[in-house]
UniProtKB/TrEMBL annotation:
Name the record gives this protein: ShKT domain-containing protein
Region span, Disordered: 92-111, 158-192
Organism per entry: Polarella glacialis
Entries under InterPro entries matching the protein: ShKT_dom (IPR003582)
Ranges annotated as biased composition (Low complexity): 159-169
Keyword Signal carried by entry: yes
Source lineage: Eukaryota, Sar, Alveolata, Dinophyceae, Suessiales
Length: 192
């Protein structure tokens, strides 16, 4: 039994009216996949490559700008339930072939900067981005503010600076800097 949705009826009317005209790939994608802020739970796709279908919960998903989802509650959200931000979509289909050869291979898709764990926000607020950087920078990129300021979770609104790498044995540059600082401190006190 086929469900009669507006999309199915529209396609049926197009075919019955002698519409042997096929939709262009971009039009077809937009007809089947959601645009910005559209629901996408059922089809799990968004109309353009700049959008990603993010799951809020098992009842709702939305096409949002790629990288623009963090797990948890959003202020002003009419439905007070947390976002899981699980990515449901694969990249939007590319448009069909053009009139001639293209300029070369397409650039790789942008890396999605999302948290891969549901507790990332809490862990980041507890300082784990610095204490457990290897794990957090891989699995909690958004909460550790590694996404180019899409979201800021720290009170100051900036990402914490990474710890400096320890100086290698025999590296005199760090000793030189420390020695210069000591000499400057000494000269300020009137000594040498």
């Amino acid at each position: 039994m086929m469900l009669r949705t507006p999309l199915n009826l529209g396609l049926l009317l197009l075919l019955c009216a002698g519409g042997a005209t096929a939709l262009a790939p971009a039009e077809e994608t937009e007809a089947l996949c959601g645009g910005l802020w559209a629901r996408c739970l059922e089809r799990k796709c968004c109309a353009t490559p700049e959008l990603t279908c993010y799951e809020k919960d098992r009842w709702f998903a939305q096409c949002r700008p790629t990288g623009n989802c963090r797990p948890g509650f959003y202020e002003g959200d009419p439905h007070k339930s947390p976002w899981s931000c699980v990515v449901l979509s694969s990249p939007a289909p590319a448009p069909g072939p053009g009139p001639g050869p293209g300029p070369g291979p397409a650039p790789p898709p942008p890396q999605q900067c999302v948290d891969k764990g549901q507790h990332c926000v809490d862990w980041a607020m507890a300082g784990e981005c610095e204490k457990n950087a290897a794990y957090m920078h891989e699995f909690c990129m958004n909460s550790c503010n590694l996404c180019g300021n899409l979201f800021t979770n720290s009170p100051e609104g900036t990402a914490a600076a990474p710890a400096a790498a320890p100086a290698a044995a025999g590296d005199s540059s760090s000793n030189h800097v420390a020695g210069s600082r000591n000499a400057t401190d000494s000269s300020l006190r009137g000594g040498r």
